[in-house]
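> forwarded from #structure-qc
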């Protein structure tokens, strides 16, 4: 049954994302597992080694003053810092590729074509250099947004100090303003993340270059027509992220308490990551194609032009 591409309401966006994720769970899972499995294995392998390093650091902190550090410990710390750098780069690029691959899969579904694993990754990896560059640009964008929090915190501190002198009412107002400001900052961060994710989609699906992918993605997210819709999805996206982290933490803690097996715990962690990454990637892909439908018109079916560039 063909999934018709048309502008969707907010409720329909989530309904479409759930429907596509459930109906095509096998192919989405295969795509996401290409990222989840290596990260889970890597985390399991270096987890125990990192515990040993932390114990060595704790022992070194109790050493008498003036005693030179253990060269073995320094070498181990250097090796693990290199491993964590490698893991960070892999997560950064791997997550971008997986999200783009899911968007390609959703595009195939909208085209009423079977989303094949090999074809999905062939199309996605065609944009590999562009996606890599965009993923590092995302780090720069996020760092810039985080740095923008510093002057905001200074302003909030001044507001709090001024309001504090006004008594209990002033402190309540200051507290409300600070909470609202923090929510606004977090919302802005989510909007930036969604915009950068759209740029990955544009690179893989539309074969756009770095500048055109970024400019088009930011226009889709912050443009007047989609701003309100993307804002609401961004808040829901953030809530889903927080909820998934809390649920994952509870399940992993419970499993670790009941089942003393690192393998079982790793499998549970991988399963939770699969569900989280799979659904959120599908949701953003549906939002991306909805924005395209509104920008390019509703007639985006295969009879007019392909969604995924050949």
């Amino acid at each position: 049954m063909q999934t018709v591409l048309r502008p969707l309401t907010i409720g329909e966006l989530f309904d479409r994302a759930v429907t596509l994720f459930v109906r095509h769970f096998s192919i989405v899972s295969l795509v996401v597992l290409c990222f989840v499995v290596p990260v889970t294995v890597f985390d399991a392998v270096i987890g125990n080694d990192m515990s040993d390093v932390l114990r060595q650091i704790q022992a070194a902190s109790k050493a008498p003053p003036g005693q030179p550090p253990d060269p073995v410990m320094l070498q181990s710390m250097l090796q693990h810092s290199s491993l964590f750098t490698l893991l960070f780069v892999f997560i950064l690029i791997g997550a971008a590729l997986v999200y783009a691959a899911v968007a390609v899969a959703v595009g195939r579904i909208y085209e009423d074509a079977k989303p094949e694993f090999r074809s999905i990754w062939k199309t996605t990896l065609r944009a590999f250099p562009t996606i890599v560059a965009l993923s590092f640009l995302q780090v720069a964008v996020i760092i810039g947004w985080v740095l923008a929090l510093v002057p905001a915190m200074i302003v909030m501190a001044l507001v709090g100090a001024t309001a504090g002198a006004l008594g209990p009412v002033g402190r309540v107002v200051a507290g409300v303003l600070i909470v609202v400001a923090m929510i606004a900052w977090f919302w802005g961060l989510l909007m930036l993340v969604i915009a950068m994710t759209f740029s990955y989609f544009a690179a893989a699906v539309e074969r756009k270059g770095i500048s055109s992918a970024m400019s088009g993605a930011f226009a889709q997210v912050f443009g007047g027509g989609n701003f309100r819709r993307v804002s609401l999805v961004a808040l829901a996206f953030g809530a889903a992220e927080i909820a998934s982290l809390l649920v994952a933490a509870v399940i992993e803690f419970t499993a670790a308490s009941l089942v003393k097996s690192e393998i079982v715990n790793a499998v549970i962690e991988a399963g939770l990551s699969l569900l989280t990454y799979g659904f959120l990637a599908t949701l953003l892909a549906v939002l991306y194609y909805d924005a395209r439908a509104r920008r390019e018109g509703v007639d985006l079916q295969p009879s007019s032009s392909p969604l995924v560039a050949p």
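QC bot note: Confidence is low (pLDDT under 50) at residues 60-67, 300-305. Residues 20-295 form one domain.
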